[in-house]
Automatic annotation (TrEMBL):
Residues 17-28 have a biased composition (Low complexity). This is Uncharacterized protein. The chain crosses the membrane at residues 185-206, 212-231, 266-289. Residues 29-42 have a biased composition (Basic residues).
Length: 569
């Protein structure tokens, strides 16, 4: 026998026997253990139930290439692409956001994230039905109206997000009561009539002016109310009685309330709007009327008429006489009883532009105190024109508190606004100087010079002056009254023809107009002209006797001597 080597003599560790795993044969190879891929801190996603896709969808997808690449369900994509339910922008989010909500970065709308890519692809194809739009607060993609959570049908356009169809328009009534429906129509009709009448009143007032001027405010309020509410939005029966709209096809009460809210664009403020418009109309009416209130110290029309009526009782005038302005003292019966042969009508004289003027006392940048009418005359040998007018125009008849005395005229009337009586062209603001005429007094007073007032004007107005006559016209002479008076066919530079009837015992000039339909209102101070174009008198009064229209002027024969003495001083 041989001896074992050293190596063989070393002790060896015996291998431990392993028992085979249950169900495996002793000679079968062992399987390696695969470590779990689940990372720490991440929870396993719950299984997502796949949404079945219709065969029509599959065929459509086979023909049309989808917007997003499909990813097999067995190997889920790391990112998910889908469309925003409102703005339709394509969004890409991690798969960890699947089945949750996020705010769209474009429209800021709360948008649902599909649970799977297949669901997202169905939305991307835009087949018609937004799969989850009716389950969340969203905006209707057809009319952009906000929808409540759980709403299926848009209350404004009627689109059904569950069926993908739009409801047909349905007739709706105010409950089942036909009387309520008629009441609503009647209220709308009344508002339309109110607005129409208001606009008519406003149009008439704008044309006429005068005493109805304050009605513009009321008409304006009516027009505004009808324009703001209108018949379309004037569902007053619903607003005040809270009667819900009942459609013929049954809907949820919540949808009916939303429809009411959509129909009323003013919300809870609707009942207040008529009150606001009414208050606005009353306020404007008050302001319009305020502009017509006389200034402090001025005389109202009613007070002036009372004074005229009182003067009528004191004065002795021909039977049936009435007057436009202060009454004339003196006996004019003789002049009226004369049978004067009328001369044939002749061509009126040619007068310089601006010889008959309207003046305003103490003008400012915006207004003047009082106004009246006058004529500009030139006296031979003088380089400045003279303004002649009636003295009574500076008294209560013209709205002044009292009749101004000569000393008051010198201090109060120092600057005048002047304009052409016919064309209304402004002749400028001028400094004036009062000419004190001895023995002058208003027409209702007994005086030698009569009702006359005179002022020096600057040389710049000399071109507008007419010559002053030295002699009065005779009986039967043709004269003209220089004023555009109411009743004439034309309001232009025409002179009103008249025939001289002579004078009265006071020296006034009496004349009868050819046109008896004229109205001599506000004509005191305007001139009477002869055939030569000379000024022969200053109008102070007039009245209608039967079918005759008579005028009275302070004759040049009466006041010229006193005027010459005053200007020669």
């Amino acid at each position: 026998m041989s001896t074992p080597s050293t190596e063989d003599s070393k002790p060896r560790r015996a291998k431990s026997a392993r028992s085979p795993s249950p169900g495996s044969s002793p000679g079968a190879p062992r399987k390696k253990k695969v470590p779990s891929r689940t990372k720490r801190g991440t929870a396993k996603s719950p299984p997502i139930e796949a949404i079945p896709v219709a065969e029509a969808d599959v065929e459509a997808e086979a023909v049309a290439e989808p917007v997003a690449k499909r990813v097999p369900a067995k190997a889920p994509a790391k990112k998910l692409r889908f469309k925003c339910a409102r703005c339709n922008v394509v969004l890409t989010v991690p798969m960890s956001k699947a089945g949750k909500y996020l705010d769209c970065p474009k429209c800021s709308e709360r948008t649902p994230v599909p649970s799977t890519q297949e669901e997202a692809d169905a939305d991307m194809i835009d087949y018609g039905v937004k799969s989850m739009a009716y389950e969340i607060p969203a905006v209707c993609t057809h009319c952009k109206t906000k929808m409540k959570k759980g709403a299926v049908v848009c209350v404004k356009c009627g689109f059904n997000y569950k069926t993908g169809k739009q409801l047909e328009k349905t007739d709706h009534t105010l409950g089942s009561d036909e009387k309520a429906r008629g009441t609503r129509a009647f209220i709308g009709f009344l508002l339309n009539v109110w607005g129409f009448i208001g606009s008519c009143i406003g149009s008439v007032v704008l044309v006429s002016g005068e005493s109805a001027f304050y009605l513009i405010g009321s008409a304006f309020g009516g027009i505004m109310t009808t324009a703001i509410l209108g018949y379309k939005y004037c569902d007053l029966w619903l607003i005040y009685r809270k009667i819900p709209i009942r459609d013929k096809d049954t809907k949820a009460e919540e949808d009916r309330e939303e429809r009411d809210d959509a129909k009323n664009p003013f919300g809870g403020w609707t009942p207040v709007i008529p009150l606001v418009c009414a208050g606005l109309g009353i306020g404007i009416a008050y302001l319009m009327w305020g502009f017509r209130i006389p200034e402090p110290g001025s005389q109202s029309l009613a007070a002036a008429m009372k004074e005229v009526a009182a003067d009528v009782e004191k004065m002795k005038l021909p039977d049936g006489a009435s007057i436009a302005g202060p009454f004339v003292q003196g006996n004019v019966k003789n002049a009226l009883q004369k049978k004067v042969q009328r001369q044939p009508s002749s061509k009126p004289p040619r007068m310089p532009k601006g010889f008959a003027i309207r003046y305003g006392i103490n003008p400012t940048a915006t207004d003047f105190d009082y106004d009246g009418f006058a004529s500009l005359v030139n006296v031979s040998g003088k380089d400045r024109p003279i303004m002649l007018t009636a003295l009574h125009a500076f008294g209560p008849v013209n709205g002044m508190p009292s009749q101004l005395t000569p000393s008051e005229l010198s201090s109060e009337v120092t600057r005048l606004f002047t304009e052409d009586r016919y064309s209304l062209d402004e002749l400028g603001d001028v400094d004036v100087e009062f000419i004190p005429i001895m023995n002058a007094a208003p027409v209702d007073k007994n005086s030698e010079a009569g009702d006359i007032a005179a002022f020096w004007l600057p040389k710049s107005h000399m071109k507008h002056a007419a010559p002053l006559a030295k002699e009065a016209p005779k009986e039967g002479d043709r004269v003209w009254f220089a004023a555009p008076v109411w009743g004439d066919d034309s309001f232009d530079n025409d002179l009103e023809p008249a025939i001289c009837l002579g004078g009265d015992d006071r020296g006034n000039l009496v004349y009868e107009f050819d046109n008896s339909e004229l109205t001599l209102t506000e004509t005191s101070g305007l001139p009477v002209i002869n055939q030569k174009g000379e000024i022969v008198g200053v109008q102070v009064a007039g009245w209608k006797n039967g079918n005759r229209l008579v005028g009275v002027a302070n004759s040049v024969k009466r006041f010229r001597p006193f005027l010459d003495k005053a200007i020669d001083k």
